[in-house]
Amino acid sequence: MSGEQVENEWKTITEDFQKIEKIHDEYVQKMRQMTSIQGNAQKALKHHSYLMKNFRDSIKKTQNKSDLSQEEIEKIDKIRQEVEVSNFKLRDMEAELPAQNNGFYLNLILGSNLNVSLLTKSERFKYKQEYEEFKWRITILITVLTSISYLWPFRVLDSILCFLMVWYYCTLTIRESVLRVNGSKIKGWWLTHHYLSCAVPGMVLTWKDGQCYQEFRPLFMCFVVYISLVQLAQNQYQSGCLRRLHALGQGHQMDITVEGFTSWQFKGLTFLLPFLMSGYIFQLVLSFKLFGWISEEKCEGLWQVWALAVLLGIIAAGNIITTSFVCLKKFKTTPSYTHIRTLTRKYSSRHRFGGGAGAQNQPEGERSRSGTGNASKEHEQ
Fold first, then answer.
1. 183-214: pLDDT as tens digits
2. Confidence of residue 57 (pLDDT cuts 50, 70, 90)
3. Dihedral angle at the C-alpha atoms of 24, 32, 253, 230, nearest 10 degrees?
4. d(C-alpha 189, C-alpha 318), whole Å
5. How far is CA 269 from CA 241, 246, 256, 266, in A?
6. For residues 251 and 242, what is the distance between their CA atoms, to the nearest angstrom?
7. What percent of the chain has pLDDT over 70?
8. What's the rounded Cα separation, in Å, for the pair 11 and 1?
9. Which residues contact 46 (CB under 8 A, 6 or more apart)?
10. Distance between CA 158 and CA 200 in Å, rounded?
């Protein structure tokens, strides 16, 4: 290659670099503008939220007045409806802006200066999908590794499994905190469940090998395999439910699958509920078994026994109570519950008035005797 050709090629590269510089300068300028606009939008939303809060307080004070006319009451009701619509729009606007606070947990782990907000809905949905894939892959890995460890009882394999489970649950808590910052409504017991679950394999990992550990080991392995298989089936089922809810516009885009039973699962079959409850009862049995071992000589001096007994008991009780409340709350919205309540009220009213409308047409003496006879028959039954 001649010197002239080298010079011409360098000129071409220089021109291309100048184009890159222009694009980069434009990018930096737009980023600064976007950051400035974001700051202004957050300030404006914060100020508007303050005004709305004061306005709602004013509405409450006005409604408490007793000298309001019907026309004024109707005007206030109309304004309240408009306020609700405005609040929905305000929440949508806030969802498009970076969160101002990552929360205590993320600030403790990542630092308070790192912004974990994802700016677009597509980025948030991709992160949520990656979270679901992560849970699916690691749960399969835990199932396979637990099966291998059960068949070949080496403490090294047990330690690797416990390390994997500790890392998995710790990672879940971080990812779920990021999802919460980006609009996912992860709350209640199932978030606490992951924090507590981090400690369980950690305690098993530090448990000294011996007769007590060897007796607990197969039970723990069976529990992990069972609950992992149920979670895999549940993940597939819940993913299908969420896709259907998203398609019908009845579910939030950032809703995720959880280890427990949630109300939106009633949109389809509830065949997984018995398997879930069986897993929770299995966990409760493990807790009671460990409590029984505390005073035995083989487990003497092992703090892991009573600590695991307490922790497994708390987790199992929380799972059972939360799932039961969800089922009961959802059952109260079903037509069957409404029908049962209607029949109960109808029977109670008839019983209270001594047989209903037919009894009202009887003479007073006969009605009294009839009511007494009915009560006696019911008592005999």
1. 777 767 888 899 999 999 999 999 988 889 99
2. confident
3. 70
4. 7
5. 10, 18, 18, 7
6. 7
7. 77
8. 15
9. none
10. 13
